[in-house]
Amino acid sequence: MITKNINPGRNKLIILFLILLFQFQISKIHADEENYFGKYVDIKILDKLSSKNKLIKIKVGDEYIFKNLVLKVLKCKNSKFDDNPEITAYLQVTDLNNKNNNEVFIFNGWTFSSSPSIQAFDHPVYDLWIFKCY
Question: Which of 37, 87, 93, 100 has the fewest CB atoms below 10 angstroms from its CB?
Answer without folding.
Answer: 100
